[in-house]
Design goal:
There is one protein chain. Helices cover about 70% and strands about 0% of the residues. The protein is built from 13 helices and no strands. Helix 2 packs across helix 12 (about 260-285), helix 3 (about 30-50) crosses helix 4 (about 85-120) and helix 4 packs parallel to helix 7 (about 155-165).
């Protein structure tokens, strides 16, 4: 009996799906994998934490500025005597929602403007890129402060303000990818077959332009969380909603007397943003075809 022909290992590797190759590249980045696990724990804690620790974050439960560990309060109390642990747990959900929602707003605006500019070119590109440059040179924190001050410091308005001032990087990345991909042969073939411009942009070109946009989107979530913390530190926040930034903002006057009331939510923001940044770096490596070919 003749032995069955063996398939070379290189052929097996080529047969693997791009998604599997991306995951294989991502898991080689140990820092990104550890950050993903830590981020998953933070998200799980934000979702189920209020049910496991049902203390009202606005309830004054003990003396103000009680240090961590006193009278059973693991993280202590703030300037009003509210349980910091309950505030951190409940604030995680709001901070993550603000980060995700603001990133979605930025991605929608940036992808739309970048796709139109990169696909049509000419006068459309000139006008849209001048608009992008105008928003890019504006002081983003000051501009968002003006929006919040004019329309109110509600959670939706804060999210919208962050999204409006943060879309320029996505627009430039999308434009550059569209300029590159629109000249490829399969796009030209689709155009010759009579496919409409809308389908060309969002069904043919955009799916192939997603990798760098996904990486930038992951980083924007962390930037939005930092942005909200900055606005809250300046007092531009909704006092009826607990977020990590709101905890810092409400206790900022007592930073020298009870530093832990600001340090603890600051550490929560730092760890979360660091995890998001490391995951973004891992995605950058995983979605880069040049690195996967090594």
């Amino acid at each position: 009996m003749t032995e069955a022909p063996q398939i070379p290992e290189q052929s097996v590797e080529k047969a693997r799906s791009p998604l599997f190759e991306a995951w294989d590249m991502f898991r080689r980045n140990h820092a990104a994998v550890a950050a993903l696990l830590a981020l998953a724990l933070i998200v799980i804690g934000a979702v189920i934490g209020p049910f496991l620790y049902p203390t009202d974050p606005f309830e004054m439960v003990w003396a103000p500025f009680s240090p961590p560990g006193e009278e059973g309060f693991l993280l202590g109390t703030d300037y009003l005597g509210r349980d910091l642990l309950a505030m951190i747990i409940n604030g995680a959900r709001v901070s993550l929602i603000i980060g995700l929602a603001a990133a979605v707003v930025s991605i929608f605006i940036g992808v739309t403007i970048g796709a139109l500019a990169g696909f049509f070119g000419g006068i459309v590109e000139e006008v849209l890129m001048r608009v992008t440059e105008f928003f890019q040179v504006l002081p983003t924190l000051l501009f968002s402060m003006v929006i919040v001050a004019l329309f109110g410091a509600s959670l939706p308005m804060i999210t919208l303000a962050i999204g409006i001032v943060s879309w320029t990087a996505v627009a430039r990345i999308t434009r550059s990818e569209f300029l590159r991909i629109r000249e490829l042969e399969y796009v030209m073939a689709s155009r010759a077959s009579g496919v409409s411009n809308a389908k060309l942009m969002f069904r043919v070109i955009l799916p192939n332009a997603l990798p760098p946009i996904i990486v930038q989107s992951a980083l924007m979530v962390g930037s939005a969380i930092l942005f909200e913390a900055g606005l809250s530190f300046l007092g531009l926040t909704d006092p009826n909603i607990v977020s990590w930034g709101q905890i810092i903002g409400s206790n900022r006057q007592y930073i020298l007397d009870a530093g832990f009331t600001v340090t603890i939510p600051g550490v929560a923001i730092f760890v979360t943003v660091l995890c998001i940044s490391l995951v973004g770096d891992g995605l950058n490596d995983a979605l880069n075809p040049k690195l996967r070919q090594r």
